[in-house]
Specification:
This protein is mainly α and 83 residues long. The chain contains one helix and no strands. The radius of gyration is 36 Å and the shape is rod-shaped. It starts with a helix and ends with a helix.
């Protein structure tokens, strides 16, 4: 085999190995970044769910407060009328 062909084959092998290593490294990095993003999305979704639950509780408490205020007003009116 001539020296030129041998050098070309070695260069081809080196280029192929370098490309393969680059693709694998890039793939691992992308996979890692996707996992990190998934964790952030899970945290975000958890916060959204908790905020929704808090908003529901706040709405129930506001309704209870309005009912309590009306009852108190009614009792005060009755007290004034009978007193």
């Amino acid at each position: 085999m001539s020296e030129g062909i041998l050098v070309a084959l070695i260069g081809l092998g080196g280029s192929a190995a370098g490309s393969l290593i680059g693709v694998l490294t890039s793939s691992r990095l992308i996979q890692y970044r996707l996992e990190q993003l998934e964790k952030k999305v899970d945290k975000h979704n958890s916060v959204i769910e908790r905020v929704f639950a808090l908003e529901q509780r706040a709405s129930v408490n506001e309704t209870k407060q309005r009912v309590t205020d009306h009852r108190l007003e009614d009792l005060e009116r009755r007290g004034v009328e009978h007193g």
